[in-house]
Structure formats: structure tokens, C-alpha cells
Amino acid sequence: MKSYIYLLAMVFATPSVWAAECNMAFTHGVLIAPEHIRILQNNRTHVQISGDTQLFIRGEWINLSAEESLLLQQYSHGLRKFVPEIVSIAVDGVELGLSSIEAMFTGIGSKSQQAEWRELVRETTFQWMSRFVRTNEHFYLAPQSLKELDYFLHAELKPQLDNLARRTVGAVWGALRDALRHSDSNFERSDNQEWQSVGHLVDKINLGLDAKAVELEEKSALFCQRMQELDEIEQQLQQRLPALKPYDVVAEKD
């Protein structure tokens, strides 16, 4: 059983083959909302699609022909279908780890200790959530390639959640042990028992992350194809609307 678990760890420790073969990337931030899509650069909106058929470039409304409106609608629908799905895979992975960690210290320690642990969780996850945001019907994807998303799930998120779990849960057990030492039960827990508990939590988190990585891998070919199709539509729009050329949202990177 241990050798099987080790083999799984080796498989998921490195980026999957498909990611090395797909060079498609988002070169601008994309915000999907029910009423509009915004293309951002340095946190500023440069392009906005309203109602899937109205185009604004740097705040200026662009008059479109029937053919251009149809292309814009196809482009908008493609982004609306794809971006929320890819954001959700990443956010689900982050939330799975955080919910498991936070569940461990619920009801343990003082209010100040819990506030300290939650602040540590927030600080650690801020950089993740600035790259992938899901709030109700709003989705944000920061500029990145499919390779980078694959790396995030395989090689970046796991070790950071592992470290966060050991820091927070280790502190939780320390607080619990101190509290129990002063109780009538005079209970003590050995360091080995503590780290077994932390290790069990880490294993649980890793299994969940492996499932998200497998989900991404299973959809890899479809995701790459969708980005290539979006790139083709985008190129057609740019040929008709030269003002869009500086905002090449979907592109193939070397």
C-alpha cells in the first residue's frame, strides 16, 4: 500500500505531459460577469464586451457590422463557457485545502489564537486567490498559460498547503495539549502522535488535489482546443478591428 501511495505521489509531483504540449495562454486578465466581460491589463479595463454584442475599447463604443457582431458573440460565448470552468478547478483545489485546515482549529484555542491562525491562512492564500477569483457569478482569471495552471495544481499548491497545514495544525495541537495539561485528565499527546494527525490531514488534502489535477488532465485536450478556437476568432476580429490588436487575449506562447 505504501509503495502504491508513493507511486501516486511521483505521478502527481511533476507536470503532466499534455501541459508540455499545449502552449496556449491568456496574456491579459479576464473578468466574467453576468452583464459583461472585461479584459484587464495592470488592473485596468481596456476592453469590455457588454451583453455579448457590444464592444468598448478604452471606453469608446465600437460600431460593429452584422458579421463582426456575430464574431464577437461567438468570442464572448467561448470565454463565458471556458473561463469559469478553469477558474473553478483551481479555486476548488484551494478551498478544499483551506476548509480542511480551518476545520481542524474550529472550537480549539482562544479567540485570539483562532484569529491569528485565520490571519495566517489569509496571508498564505492571498497570492493564490489573486490569480483565480470566483465570487457568485463573477470569475477572474489572471494572465497565465495552461502550463502554469498545471504547475499550480501539481507543484505549487501542494507544498504550500502542506507547509500551511503543519504550521497551523501544529499550533492547534500545541494549544490543545496545553489546555488539556491543565485539566483534570492530565492528558498528554506525544510529538509523534501530533505529527501523525497533521500527516493524516495533509494526506487528505493531497488526495483532493490529486482529484482536481486528474480532472484538469482529463479535460486538457478539450481546453487546449477551446483556446485555439478562441484564438482563431480573436484573430478574425483583429483583422476587422485593428484597434483590438494590442489586446491579444488568447495567444500561443513559445
Query: What distance lies between the first and last C-alpha atoms, to the nearest angstrom?
Result: 41 Å
Estimate the global geometry from the Cα principal axes.
elongated
Strand order within the widest sheet? Answer: 6-5-4-3-2-8-7
Helix-strand pattern: HHEEEEEEHHEEEHHHE
Q: How does the helix and strand content classify structurally?
A: alpha+beta
pLDDT < 50 runs, ≥5 residues: 1-19, 185-196
Oligomer: single chain
Q: How many E-type strands?
A: 10
Give the overall average pLDDT.
79
Notes on the structure:
This is DUF2884 family protein. InterPro entries: DUF2884. Keywords: Signal. Pfam families: DUF2884. The N terminus is likely disordered. 63% of the residues lie in helices and 16% in strands. The protein has one domain. The chain is built from 7 helices and 10 strands. Helix 3 packs antiparallel against helix 4 and helix 5 packs antiparallel against helix 6. The protein has a 7-stranded antiparallel β-sheet with strand order 6-5-4-3-2-8-7, covered by helices on one side. The longest helix has 40 residues. The chain is of the alpha+beta class.
In short:
Helices cover 63% and strands 16% of the residues. The protein has 254 residues and is α+β, with helices and mostly antiparallel strands.
